[in-house]
Design brief:
The structure is a single chain. The protein is an alpha/beta fold. The radius of gyration is 21 Å and the shape is globular. It has two domains: 135 residues, Aspartate Aminotransferase, domain 1 (Alpha-Beta Complex), CATH 3.90.1150; 248 residues, Type I PLP-dependent aspartate aminotransferase-like (Major domain) (Aspartate Aminotransferase, domain 2, 3-Layer(aba) Sandwich). The relative contact order is 0.17. Bound molecules: pyridoxal-5'-phosphate. Pyridoxal-5'-phosphate (PLP) binds next to helix 4 and helix 7.
């Protein structure tokens, strides 16, 4: 086929995907040092198996699928009512937030939702993204031709970056120039920090005033340990006229391999609500029944108890990483309300150089901060998803050898 027929915006995507670069470096090291016992603290995937309550619900749903009277074919593209109602009860009513089940769109993942949502907007809208952040927001807009060209400083010419650093306490300022779409992620991947109520109110007020839209990714909301911190953008007055929220069962309940998430579009945003409905009905055929029953089971009293216990396990590991690195004299952020620890690299070393040094001196793997945006340079991401005892060993090596 003639290459001139392709979407050339793809050629603007920065290099290879961060994680494939890292995988390549690890493989190379393991090739030269086959005896090395590498500990991975870079992994952004859960490792604890599904809770018993979920497994029970899945078995039951599988059995229903094998019986004529209870077999189900295509379900509603927006998700079954039983799950949409369980989400409203468990996530919103429980926190004093009014929510209509019809505003919940169940899907097979937040990555796809957060990447697909941009197709509802015209090509010339300007986006603002936190820096650093989950790369999907930026890359999906690069593919759509909305970002201009990549500059020498790592910024795209037509994107507004919301710097989130230790200097501003990871509470970004409002965009300096007019934007129409604002992505926010709290708790943030990779920094593990949480946006305060004041910061969110500031963005909601800005969005309502300027007619812009906030795309709020709350994939890690269940990791927030302090009840007074905002878990949802819809806790903020005024959000229903200017915000869409993305949630996922991936990190909440270990569904990274099962696949279930949801997007909340308040009916106040009636045009976007009906456009997303049309988009999903045209391009998506729903999440399978067994998976939706599995997700529903998280909200039973027993399911919630088990889910909370798994999250507590990860947070105990996060606490350990924070404590040990701090005791060793390092500066760390995050890890209190998220499974991510954002490690300030000492002495101005570049984050990819630090990756190499950590691998060669400690056989420990993490993720270079620069892979998440220019402001991530000088930082390093560790995750609390790994085995607790292995993480202890890694921290011991860091204390002794780094
Ligand atoms: C893991 C993650 C998601 C979840 O993606 P799924 O497709 O639902 O697995 C969304 N946003 C962020 C920031 C994440 O880190």
């Amino acid at each position: 086929m003639n290459d001139s027929y392709i979407n050339s915006n793809y050629d603007r995507l920065p290099g290879s995907y961060l994680f494939s670069t890292i995988a390549h470096k690890i493989k190379e090291y393991q090739g030269i040092h086959p005896e090395a016992d590498i500990i991975r603290l870079g992994i952004g995937d859960v490792t604890t198996p599904l809770i018993p309550e979920v497994i029970k619900a899945m078995h039951k749903a599988v059995d229903e699928m094998g019986v004529k009277d209870t077999f189900r074919g295509y379900g509603p593209e927006q998700g079954y009512d039983f799950l949409r109602e369980a989400i409203v009860r468990g996530e919103y009513t429980a926190r004093g937030i009014d929510m209509d089940p019809n505003d919940i769109f169940v899907s097979d993942g937040s990555k796809c939702d957060v990447a697909n949502i941009q197709e509802l907007f015209s090509e010339d809208v300007r986006i603002a993204i936190p820096d650093p952040v989950y790369p999907v927001y930026l890359d999906s807009n690069v593919m759509a031709g909305r970002t201009g060209t990549l500059q020498g400083d790592g910024h795209f010419s037509e994107v507004t970056y919301l710097a989130s650093t230790a200097e501003n306490d990871f509470q970004p300022d409002l965009p300096k120039n007019p934007v129409q779409l604002i992505y926010l992620c709290s708790p943030n991947n990779p920094t593990g920090t949480v946006l305060s109520r004041e910061t969110l109110q500031k963005f909601v007020d800005y969005a309502n005033k300027t007619g812009s839209l906030i795309l709020f990714d709350g994939a890690y909301n269940c990791y927030i340990q302090d009840e007074s911190l905002p878990h949802s953008i819809f806790e903020i007055p005024g959000a229903r006229t200017c915000a869409i929220e993305f949630r996922s069962f991936s990190k909440t309940a270990g569904f990274t391999g099962v696949r279930c998430a949801y997007t909340v579009i308040p009916h106040e945003l009636s045009k976007l609500h009906s456009m997303w409905n049309r988009r999903q009905c045209t391009k998506f055929n729903g999440v399978n029944y067994v998976t939706q029953r599995a997700a529903e089971a998280i909200y039973t009293p027993q399911g919630w108890k088990e889910t909370t216990a798994v999250i507590k396990g990860y947070m105990d590991t996060a606490k350990l990483i924070r404590k040990e690195l701090t005791a060793a004299g390092y500066t760390v952020f995050g890890g209190e309300h998220a499974p991510y620890i954002w490690w300030k690299i000492p002495d101005g070393e570049k984050s990819f150089d630090f990756f190499d040094r950590l691998l060669s001196t400690c056989q420990v793997v993490g993720t270079p901060g620069s892979g998440f945006g220019p402001c991530g340079e000088g930082y390093f991401r560790l995750t609390a998803f790994g085995d607790h005892e292995r993480t202890k060993v890694a921290l011991q090596r860091i204390k002794e050898n780094l």
